[in-house]
Input
Amino acid sequence: MKKFQTKATIIVYENESELSAEDRRLLALSREAATRAYAAYSHFQVGAALLLENGEIVTGNNQENSAYPSGLCAERTAAFYASSRFPGVAFKKLFISAINPKAVLARPIPPCGACRQSLLEYEQRNGQPIIVLMAGQQGEIWQAPSIESLVPLSFSDDFLPATE
Ligand code: THU
Output
């Protein structure tokens, strides 16, 4: 028997005053996007701002549905729109923030597992790590160096049979 470890190194900023000007702008855009979320059922509004290699910034927010699984998270809304609008253009940075209208969210919001899996494919396809920044409404902001670092033991097309 043997063991191996998986690990991710997360940078922690005390608050937004420690961020670069670019990151502050992405945070502001993700917060603005969160205010436009359609979160009729959870009332939890999430915003994502995706900076692309060509300088474009695409934002997205969560879109819910009365048939709950038919909704979509903010991160995938942004990623799918970015890829449909700018196919093959690498995603450089993703900033995620959220608004909990019932109690101020004082910790960073991490992407859900399904979003990590989706984003991993774009990261691998585009051959460039996506820096992921996560914020709440106040408090610390966390930064992960890549999607891969957030998806240990990931499944990818490497496992699929080679096509002709
Ligand atoms: N949600 C996101 O948009 N992103 C996340 O990373 C976590 C959860 C959304 C999905 C749903 O609309 C609401 O937040 C509550 O789960």
